[in-house]
Write a structure and sequence with these properties.
globular; mainly alpha; 434 Repressor (Amino-terminal Domain); two-stranded antiparallel sheet
């Protein structure tokens, strides 16, 4: 399973910028719908597309490997 580390990156960015960052902020900046961001953040194994990953990487200034984590199936 691929895990999307959206919540962790949100926390890190908020800490670095010393401000609260909401999913609405991310939605407005990336043009990714709020419901999609909520599913990415809360649904384990949520299936998304490369355009979404690209937009999130641009927003967080990171590589896909910073956003995605592979977890072997048990």
């Amino acid at each position: 399973m691929i895990r999307i580390k959206l919540k962790q990156l949100l926390d890190e960015k908020a800490f670095k910028e010393r401000r609260r960052i909401t999913l609405n902020d991310v939605s407005e900046a990336t043009k990714i719908s709020r419901p999609t961001l909520t599913r990415i953040a809360n649904v384990a194994g949520y299936n998304t597309n490369t355009d979404t990953i690209d937009a999130l990487c641009k927003y967080f200034g990171c590589e896909p490997s910073d956003l995605l984590q592979f977890l072997p199936d048990e």
